[in-house]
Amino acid sequence: MYPEILEHWQIKKVLEKALARGGEFSEIYFEYKTEMTINLSENKIKNLSYGISSGLGVRVISGAKTGYAYTDDFSFEKILNVAEVASYVVDNSSRPTSVNLEEKRKAKQNFSIEKPIYLLEVDKKIEWIKRANDSARSYDGRIKQVDINYYESTRYFWIANSEGIFVESDDSLFRIFITSVAIDDGLREMGISYLGGRFGYDYLVEHSPEKMGMESAMQAVSKLKAKPAPAGNFPVVIKSGWGGVLVHEAVGHGLEGDFNRKGISVYSGKIGQKVCSELVTIIDDGTIPNSRGSLAIDDEGTPMMKTVLIENGMLRGYMLDKLNAKLMGLESTGNGRRESYKYYPLPRMRNTYIEAGKDDPNDLIKSVKYGIYAKSLGGGQVDIVSGNFVFEINEGYLIENGEITYQIRGANLIGNGPEIMKRVIGVGNDLEIEKRTGSCGKDGQYVPVGVGQPTILVSEITVGGTQV
């Protein structure tokens, strides 16, 4: 199914060519990828595209410097030239280098997909999308617009490096976004539902498109009745699951190895120190079955693992790729990831979440006299150096005397990630990891990720609202 572009001896030669100017480490990354997108808008399939891309990149490391070049021309001469280009990151004179390369082996995945999504006929995917559209539009006459975006991909890749590693793997995933817009009396509100992950097509078939379409429409319509959000400093209860995007953005990026090696993260040099509430344990795990951030190996060939970043409030470690681990005198945690063969890997999150606590989520709500219940968070921004963030509350409610009273709109959470984590005074026992929809951007590269948390209670967060 996948092209064999180089023989074993040729791969060895390319790695040696890349080291010929004195590099410390060389690597070849090959990728063969298929992608399909389907878009429905205005009751019509507006776009259906399918593409295949393949290419190869060569990386050379010398100290903290990285040389990288890539090609989609698989002639041996061209690939040798790419290796030579990458090698120019090194200024040393040429020297002969020999690489002992193992035989190619298949990486072991901890979960299986029996019926990959690409095996389901396109007509059945389109039928599912149309049924979801009909359901959303028929829910309420105030639904004026429905957009559905479907994406799937399959990837085969192998990695060979000068340390002798030669390993291959493959993966597949899909994602569906259903967006409904409700308009009434000058108000315009949007609802979103989604589905996806590293599942087989039976997962799609088993999830009712009517239910998914209705959930999107219901959210949009309910927000039409929402009242303007209060502004000020309040206790905030953040729901389990997708609420973990706050931890991902406001804390997770600050725990990536490159920022800490360079000393520009708020967590730099704080291993062993208390950095947040003792109720909080934060994990990054690449082995969670079927989640978008889970793989057999990272994009450097390191097996996925579970990494404890913060344990009971104490900083225990960072997320590391090979380069930053070596420069910090540590071992890679399997967090080296890249968007495609056109990029070299960076330390990135996989599935990042707060571990379950002991509190009943309902008790956390009951303990709040006046505050906010953030059922769903939307987009946000964070500054890695300072940890400051702003997050939209996509679906939120007011809590009064321990009860959820009415829905609010126009609310944002504003604060500093490390400070907010110090104010966590309750952690629920309802851990949920959102496997279906997350994507993360860094330095122009986007990779699929998972996020998660149990329901948590923060003693105080600044809420930017429309009602003072």
TrEMBL record:
GO cellular component, one term: cytosol
This protein's UniProt keywords: Hydrolase, Metalloprotease, Protease
Residue intervals of the Metalloprotease TldD/E central domain: 120-224
One Pfam match: PmbA_TldD_2nd
Every Metalloprotease TldD/E N-terminal domain range: 27-86
Keyword Hydrolase carried by entry: yes
InterPro entries documented for this protein: Metalloprtase-TldD/E_C, Metalloprtase-TldD/E_cen_dom, Metalloprtase-TldD/E_N, Peptidase_U62_metallo, TldD, TldD/PmbA_N, TldD/PmbA_sf
Biological processes, Gene Ontology terms: proteolysis
Gene3D superfamilies: PmbA/TldD superfamily
Identification of the protein by name: TldD protein
Provenance organism: Candidatus Kryptonium thompsonii
Organism placement in taxonomy: Bacteria, Pseudomonadati, Candidatus Kryptoniota, Candidatus Kryptonium
